[in-house]
Amino acid sequence: MEHYAIETEGLTKTFVGFAAVKNVALKVRSGALHALIGPNGAGKTTVFNLLTKFHLPSAGRILIDGRDVTALKPSAISRRGVARSFQISSVFPHLSVHENVRVALQRKLGTGYEFWRSNKTLRVLDERAMELLADVGLTAYAGHAAADLAYGRKRALELATTLALDPSVLLLDEPMAGLGVEDIERITALIRSAAVGRTVLMVEHNLRVVADLCDRITVLQRGQILTEGTYREVSANPAVIEAYMGNGHV
Amino acid sequence: MVSNNLTIVPAATVTDYQVPLLAGMALAAALVAPFVVYPIFLMNVLCFALFACAFNLLMGFAGILSFGHAAFFGGAAYVSAHCAKELGLPAELSLVAGMASGAILGAVFGWVAIRRQGIYFGMITMGLAQIVYFIALQAQFTGGEDGIQGVPRRSMLPFINLENDRTMYFFVLVVFLLGFVAILRTVNSPFGHLLKAIRENEPRAASLGYDVDRFKFLAFVLSATLSGLAGALKAIAFQLATLTDVEFFMSGEVVLMTLIGGVGTIIGPIVGAGILIAMQTYLAEFGTWVKAVQGAIFIICVLAFRKGLIGEFAALMERRAKRAGR
Fold first, then answer.
1. Can you give the CATH number for the domain in which B189 is found?
2. Interface ipTM
3. Is A74 at the interface with chain B, CB within 8 A?
4. Which chain A residues are Cβ-neighbours of B196 within 8 angstroms?
5. Judged by CB atoms within 8 Å, which residues 125-144 of A form the interface with B?
6. Out of 3.40.50.300, 3.30.565.10, 1.20.120.1460, 1.10.287.1080, which CATH number does the structure's domain A4-244 have?
7. Which of A97, B1, B119, B262 could be B310's S-S partner, Cβ–Cβ 3.0 to 4.6 Å?
């Protein structure tokens, strides 16, 4: 039997009178690099928000590594080893680049509530933070405020922060959105190396990136799964071509 | 989010060797002050400075706006006044009792309100503070309109005579410094670090695995506890606890002090408290006009100096440093 890192059963989310996600049974194999694609409004981000508990499902179940996590809070999901990035780059703007990564590393220390301790005790994390920044090519910007970074670098920082959690499951919401060509290559390489030994589920519009990176693709349309398969299978599917018609993709 | 335009004094503006130097100068000034200025006035400033610093811990560093802090300040004033006068406890223990009352009230307020955001949070704290005010007005032990008067100033240590205003001033100064150092440490602790992250981007902090509500709750209780200490200190120093300490205006005043000095700065609230207390003291002959002047200052502050006096000054220094660096 196959082992699934993420599994949903009958996952449904209705916003007043509108079903954004309907009865989705998504299965992401452990260790896979899995993409979730579909035209705008297909419900990709909603699925993401459901998986990370930023939305509560109207119906259905979510299993992470076979365990039911439907009732947990976002912070608890994260502690189960599921880390996410956001569609719009999500950093701590007035903290330095280095501090951004350290915030994520700090969790393992378990001293988060200790208001009587000096923050010098956080220095043990500095080395690891610099390593993570080096991996995404941000060493030179460590002392800058995150708000001052260019967009592509903010995305790289967000990725470094997410990887700092050393998650077993990585959820990436449109990691290439708003990036220039040279950034796309760099981030693609980064995701590929980050995926080693992890399960990655990404929402992505750039199909070239998806074709290049992902071994499994699920196509969503109007909140439901249209089809699933390899890029070759999916891109040859007439229903997928039709779903994308007029959107300029494929 | 309420908090996006709050600014912290950047470390770059004050270099490392300047900090102890400036702190030493401030301390020297505080030691000499009672021989130059009326000690009662100075004690008033210090009590409110501590209150504003405690409030700033919440607003400036956690990005949470409370409109109910008078409940902690005034509630603790009543508790410590009662302990000192009716139970005969020495000043030190009365302060501890006042602090404890701040912590308990803070836990209750926080428990009710912490899941609400921004203005809704503010409204709930305001409503709860009105309940505390009503209790203070109706309960027996608070003395109604008269308040608790003639609170004895008596230290645990027999060689300290708090009856003397100057000695009392030094006592207040020590308590203030203890509270101030506690706030400094909290801001610069692993907890304070995460609090800033939560203020900056709450969903991101949650997605990194932090239970943001618990962090905000702890920040709220700490702020309430230190506000309680400030209120208790005021009751002992002025030998008085009245409805003024617990009424809505007091909640507004601490917001004003923090804003004028600079939200999220370390010394801004002290400066803000100094300015407002000086106005109330030296413009007292103008009666209620002082409040009109305060209102005008508040409007000017919000329109022209969003960062407050210290915040604007720090921003100026930072711009200069940047220009010099280029």
1. 1.10.3470
2. 0.80
3. yes
4. 92, 94-95
5. none
6. 3.40.50.300
7. B262
